[in-house]
Design goal:
four-stranded antiparallel sheet, five-stranded mixed sheet, 442 residues, 2% helix, 37 strands
């Protein structure tokens, strides 16, 4: 499942001496919330709206999709455009489309209407016992099932299996996440028919293997966990951080995926494997039963929230982070929204110089370039061709700290349309400099 927020491709961080990262905000119980069921699939879109479906323990699915904009609830079902009322998961893309997985295929919501994309491959009856959904930066929608992995892009479905490097065609997926650097991570188990065990009664049965793999755009590559090729415990949770990184937990430890290796980042003494999220400040939120633990990006424990601190009580079944440090939880007793206070935002606001990948890329006609400044100062942002020649100066002025974006319309400084090819965006601000490659199509 994919989360909203800022995802950094090239990052330079400057930590302010003595900076205190403490979430001193407040929880608000959401009024008139629908029944949340046994488990919730929950995401937050780019506008800060909550989306979720309540999963029934028996059917392993929900019957409706709910959205909440802070004031009003909306309910979506087959009557309002979904393919059917068997809802499995929800994800949000970078262009703010909401994707819903049902047992017949994908549904995309553009803010007005739903568009359906049915599966084009055979669906085994047990396929939806487990499922997960995530959307990459390039718009590829990734689906993990009880019987394998599939991706969807530009109207085409692709099934991933042995031919792409997975150990079997029908691995049982536990979690799947698409980072914004193009990597996709999947955690799974499979039956190793070539490896057997024998019990005391001399009954022979195949070995069950657990593992994680990363898709690099071409094939699936095995990962390492603390130097061990095969993990002893499968990762049930995957979360995408504000820099596009992929995180997971095993129940007592928090890990970050660096390349194709999992690196332990935190020892979480009483973390559960119920829900995991990384907020827009880089803090880790992890639920255990009816509580939520928060750790900052320096691995320091910050606080534990429970019903005594404003949570609705009951086992937490869903957790998602939105823009501006806002976090949502869904529990069996209701839904709550965490809003950081003004002092919290001031203390936690990251001091970041960053140049993000342009979107879309490749592009035709125009593309948007986003960047972030840690402090006020002189800034230049230019476009260069593959020979290093300056094509267009987009920004050359003094700018304030914070997030910014600019659109390049494919024209040079003289107003002429440039030819198709590879171009480079170059950002300079003080001692910081970064470049990003982009492709213009005709």
């Amino acid at each position: 499942m994919s989360l909203a927020g800022r995802y950094f491709v090239i990052i330079m961080m400057f930590f302010i001496s003595g900076r205190v990262a403490y979430p001193d905000g407040n929880w608000t119980i959401v009024p008139d919330s629908p029944s949340v069921g046994d488990r919730a699939e929950i995401v937050v879109d780019g506008d800060g709206c909550l989306w979720f479906t309540a999963i029934d323990a028996t059917s392993k699915a929900g019957s409706e999709v709910y959205s909440y904009d802070g004031e009003n609830w909306q309910i979506f079902s087959a009557d309002s455009g979904l393919m059917n009322n068997t809802v499995l998961d929800i994800a949000v893309s970078q262009d703010n489309f909401v994707w819903v997985l049902t047992n017949d295929g994908l549904n995309k919501y553009d803010g007005v209407t739903w568009t359906s994309y049915p599966f084009t491959f055979q669906i085994p009856p047990y396929m939806f016992v487990t499922h997960d959904l995530s959307v990459g930066r390039d718009g590829t929608v990734w689906c993990g099932f009880h019987s394998g992995v599939a991706s969807f892009k530009n109207g085409v479905w692709t099934q991933h299996g042995k031919v792409y490097g997975l150990p079997e065609d029908d691995i049982q997926v536990y979690a799947l996440a698409a980072g914004l650097d193009g990597r996709v991570c999947v955690t799974y188990e499979y039956i190793a028919w070539d490896q057997v065990n024998e019990d005391e009664g001399q009954n022979v049965y195949p070995d069950i293997k657990c593992d994680t793999m990363v898709f690099d755009g071409t094939s699936w590559i095995p990962t390492l966990i603390s130097g061990i090729q095969k993990p002893k415990r499968v990762f049930n949770n995957l979360a995408v951080g504000p820099d596009g990184s992929i995180w997971s937990s095993t129940g007592t430890n928090l890990y970050k995926l660096e390349g194709t290796a999992w690196r332990q980042k935190q020892y979480l003494s009483d973390i559960g494997r119920d829900a995991l999220a990384i907020d827009s400040f880089g803090n880790t939120w992890a639920s255990v039963e009816e509580k939520v633990n928060i750790y900052d990006n320096n691995d320091v424990f910050l606080k534990k929230y429970s019903n005594e601190n404003g949570l609705p009580g009951g086992e937490i079944t869903g957790l998602a982070a939105g823009p501006d440090g806002i976090v949502w939880i869904v529990s069996k007793n209701g839904i709550a929204k965490y809003t950081p206070g003004e002092t919290s935002v001031a203390a936690l606001e990251p001091a970041i110089f960053a140049l993000y990948d342009n979107f879309p890329n490749p592009f035709n006609m125009s593309t948007t370039i986003e960047y972030s400044l840690a402090k006020e100062g002189a800034v230049s942002l230019g476009i260069y061709n593959s020979l290093g020649q300056n094509v267009r100066d987009l920004i050359s002025e003094n700018m304030s700290a914070g997030a910014h974006k600019v659109v390049w319309d494919g024209l040079d400084d003289d107003g002429n349309t440039v030819s198709a090819g590879i171009y480079i965006s170059r950002l300079s601000a003080g001692d910081f400099s970064a470049t990003m490659k982009m492709t213009l199509l005709k």
